Amino acid sequence: MSKIIIVSPAYPLRGGIANFSEALASTLQAQGHDVAIVSYSLQYPGFLFPGKTQFVTDPPSDSIRDLPIHPLINSINPWTWFRAAQWIVASKPDYVLISHFQPFLLPSSYCTTLFLKWSNVPAFTLFHKAPFCALLMSMMHICRGSIGTSQRINDWIVQHAPTHPVCEGFHPPYDCAFGQSVESGEARLRLGLEKNGKYILFFGLIRPYKGLDLLLEALTDPHLEALDIQLVIAGECYSDERQLHQRLATLNLKTRVITHIRFIPRDEVSYYFSAADIVVQPYTLFSGSSGVTALAYNFLKPVIVTNIGGLPDQVLHEKTGFVVERDPTAIANAIVTFFQRSDSAEFAKNISQYNAEHSWAALAKRIDAFCLGNMR
Q: Is residue 51's pLDDT more than 70?
């Protein structure tokens, strides 16, 4: 079996990349590999971070309780980049996976990768997002290969580096750490919702590119109003929250939108997805795969996504959800279509099949085989 080190944010840092890396690491560990994560002691300086905190307050999930996590990298202290690389080299891994998702962290990732190359330690880039820049291209050239987490990213790598070895990865549905489905009535009671209501869910950090404005406009469609469809917004706001409430007032939506504007702890996530009929992701700008879709599929909930970035790669149109254009009318039509069809059981069946074909175990085996096959 392989000895593997993953360079990525991880517990107690919060966010989708940490969730992904922890799930991948724990799966590799369960398959018999020796796995550790090298994380960050400081990911972003406070003045660059728009939220309240970069850390979770809940205890680690059972799946990562025995996973070694070493917070060695300070993103603004170059000395720690080389110290972390030295620690990795001294650990003698068979290979290293270095997560890329944020240009701000590229200097530390590049320097760590360069040191590993000098020390003849095989390193591979694990792409979560793929904005083009010269430093990223340089980092790819000193790696042995790259793994994408969506078809769009895989295509991007091939386009910009045709001879670079690529592993066509994907974002599996989360199957651990966030709990199991709860009966919808119980979940709605827990959240103060009507037991027999119709609910769509917007979940996760509220940022401009996530297109909440489009969804609010869609909600004014008279067909949605006639069906008495309500929206639950659950997540921390990374912009001015007052603007959101002003927008709700302007569109006369205050009685049809339930707002839980805060970071949702891990042990509450299941209630929001279990209470929802469908999850909507009306993103206007996106380049990677989506952890929200992965969460929705864990709870067998269909999704409506806009045709942008890697979002459509995770959705089988009209089987596990809907892919629509970035337009309020298109979003509204998809919501109406879903509730008029009333075939939630068929969507759940299709999602179960998708989950079985896109498991963490399958991804972990694919990555390990790829890395071992590109060691030279």
A: no
